[in-house]
Automatic annotation (TrEMBL):
Protein's name according to its UniProt entry: Cytochrome c oxidase assembly factor 3
Keyword check for Transmembrane helix: yes
Keywords from the named record: Membrane, Transmembrane, Transmembrane helix
Membrane-traversing stretches: 19-39
Localization terms from the record: Membrane
Transmembrane listed as a keyword: yes
Species assigned in the record: Drosophila madeirensis
Amino acid sequence: MQKKPINANALLDKLHRGAVYACIGVTLYGTYVLGSRYYHYYTVIRPEKQQAELKLLDEGAHDKAKELKY
């Protein structure tokens, strides 16, 4: 039995389907990475910054700021 040759349209359709699946995969992976970065920021970095700012305010560091001169 001989194999039927794949016509050009079928080949292009398969290549296009593969490219679409690749784009979907990249989009899902990028969404996961960005989501994990935002989660890390809001659960770790932001609270640390707020604690550091409160610590500076408690020490009175805000009084030592230079005057703005216009």
